[in-house]
Design a protein that fits this description.
The complex is a heterodimer of chains A (261) and B (281). With 261 residues, chain A is an alpha/beta fold. In chain A, 36% of the residues lie in helices and 26% in strands. Chain B contains eleven helices and two strands; from the N terminus they run ααββααααααααα. By secondary structure, chain B is mostly helical. Classes of the chains: A alpha/beta (261), B mainly alpha (281). Chains A and B meet through helix 2, helix 3 and helix 6 of A and helix 7 and helix 8 of B.
């Protein structure tokens, strides 16, 4: 098993996150069963599966958001750069592992304040430093040109697609290493979806991305590898083109052909 | 009978019921304004009472009520808000917190004279604050705590859970999350509740009866350890204890009291309306 998780400049495959025997319960309900999975640095890992397949529980474990639920229990390990994430302070972990939610969750404050939101809390940045971070972050999600003249306006006035890219900027502003996308386009029209996907492809040069999606075509379009989850278990994981053209498991084949879901 | 006829009858009944709620309010207001309006002038509002309170103004009672109300909010708002934050954001759902919630609901049902006796026993006698503005304000504050806590909890709970999730996902701690992504959006609701509780405190007689209210004082209070006159108690006295006082003076006093309570309620309504307009989630 490869445990050297450094970001090497070459094309040597390295594991950014290693998941070993991860099981998750909410109360008595088993949401995820003995998952073993490695996520490589600077890849987009797509995760597909029907409702209750455990894909969202899996994603929310990577930044320990699951533990906000009182009934949550887990066993197994998630290792980020050779360190068990249970031994990292949740605040420090979530800075390194950012998340984009299904619905664009902008706060009812200005565009600028939304992007600066996390950064402001973490360390005292000067006004000009903050301005730079906001600009860079908005450029990374291709939103800068659309909003640069109205940064002081309420973010809730933006369109759904713009709001979702604003959320991406806000997450990037705290300089994460991994970005988790939880069905980021489920509420968006095709054009906005294309823009979000475009930014994802650009982002993988700098970040490791995990994309949970209900839209199998989206996984096919943007992810390098795709994992198929079903009722809390990993059925199959492979290079995206392989999984979609020659799935090994019959259930994978049926799901991607739309026979159930 | 045709459905439309039935519907018309039903609507008429509903309309009548609504009118029955509004009418008494208008009626009371009408009587007070009609009888009291001519008694109100600058002198009435700004001078001391004289001739055994049959003449002069009600200035010390107005000042006393304002002192009481402002001091009581100084105690009830911070305590109530912090309790609400604890209950809504930190406390786990267990037997203890359920008991606390039950206690809060029950406290708001306790009659105000009981709070008055409680204030007398605890603040006036036991803590030796004497009959004073401090004792009265603390009693009013305790009476108002359930209202402040309930209103603050509702305001906190109305902030979407997703705001908290976003904040956590950016690596903020629990307190940072409450401080920056919950409280700012709950403040208008909290303020509305606080002002409504003030309006109630301004109008209550029983809690101040034994703890602060003076029958008559020739001067304004100098400190929070002095007694003070207060509008509701003053109204009670001139209506029941003093013979041969003009109706006009009584109604004018009532009008001032109702006016203060009403303007507080209107401020609360305006804040709430503004908030609704701004709220976009």
């Amino acid at each position: 098993m490869v445990t050297h998780a450094t970001r090497s400049p070459g094309h040597q495959v390295t594991s950014k996150i290693i998941i070993q025997q991860l099981s998750i319960w909410f109360g008595k309900v088993l949401a995820l069963r003995s998952l073993n999975l490695e996520i490589q640095g600077n890849e987009i890992l797509g995760v597909i599966g029907p409702a209750n397949s455990g894909k969202t529980s899996f994603l929310r474990q990577l930044n320990r958001l699951n533990e906000l639920e009182a009934s949550f229990r887990m066993s197994g390990e998630v290792i980020l750069d050779n360190k068990n994430i249970q031994h990292i302070k949740p605040e420090a972990l979530r800075k390194r592992v950012g998340m984009i939610f299904a619905l664009p969750q902008v706060l009812p404050i200005s565009i600028y304040d939304n992007v600066a939101y996390g950064v402001r809390m973490h360390d005292g940045k000067s006004k000009s430093e903050l301005d730079g971070i906001v600009e860079d972050s908005l450029k990374s999600s291709f939103l800068w040109d659309e909003v640069k003249d109205r940064l002081k306006e309420l973010a809730t006035k933006l369109s759904g697609g713009q709001q979702q890219r604003l959320c991406i900027s806000r997450t990037l502003a705290v300089k994460p290493e991994v970005v988790l996308f939880d069905e980021p386009c489920s509420g968006l029209d095709p054009i906005s979806t294309a823009k979000v996907e475009e930014s994802m492809l650009k982002l993988k040069e700098k970040y490791t991305i995990v994309l949970v999606t209900n839209n199998t075509k989206q996984a096919a379009r943007v992810s390098d590898r795709t994992a198929f989850f079903l009722t809390g278990e990993l059925v199959e994981i492979d290079k995206t083109h392989k999984l979609f053209t020659a799935p090994k498991d019959k259930r994978t084949e049926e799901y991607i052909q739309g026979k159930f879901g | 009978m045709k459905t439309t006829t039935k519907q018309k009858i039903a609507f008429s009944i509903l309309f009548l019921c609504t009118i029955m709620v509004v009418l008494p309010v208008l009626f009371v207001l009408g009587i007070i304004i009609k009888n009291g309006w001519h008694g109100i002038n600058w002198q009435f509002l700004t001078t001391m009472p004289k001739d055994g309170m049959r003449g002069g103004g009600i200035y010390p009672a107005i000042v006393g009520t304002l002192y009481l109300v402002s001091l009581s909010i100084v105690f009830s708002l911070p305590i109530g808000l912090l309790a609400a934050i604890y209950l809504n954001e930190y406390a786990k759902d267990n037997l203890l917190t359920r008991l606390i919630r039950l206690a809060i609901v029950n406290l708001s049902g306790v009659s105000s004279v009981v709070y008055g006796l409680f204030g007398l026993a605890l603040f006036v006698t036991f803590m030796k604050f004497g009959v004073s503005i401090l004792s009265g304000a603390l009693t009013l504050a305790i009476m108002n705590l359930p209202i402040v806590i309930t209103a603050s909890r509702e305001a906190l709970a109305s902030v979407p859970y997703s705001f908290r999730e976003v904040s956590y996902s950016l690596g903020l701690s629990r307190w940072q999350t409450i401080r920056h992504s919950v409280l700012p959006f709950a403040i208008p609701g909290i303020l509305t509740g606080a002002i409504l509780s003030l309006a109630r405190a301004a109008g209550e007689t029983a809690p101040i009866l034994f703890t602060v209210a003076a029958f008559y004082l020739p001067k304004l209070p100098d400190s929070i350890f002095d007694q003070a006159m207060a509008l509701p108690y003053h109204l009670y006295i001139i209506s029941t204890q003093i013979p041969n006082i003009s109706t006009e003076t009584r109604y004018a006093t009532a009008l001032v009291l109702v006016g203060i309570v009403f303007s507080m309620n209107i401020i609360a309504v305006v804040i709430r309306a503004r908030l609704r307009k701004r709220k976009k989630w």
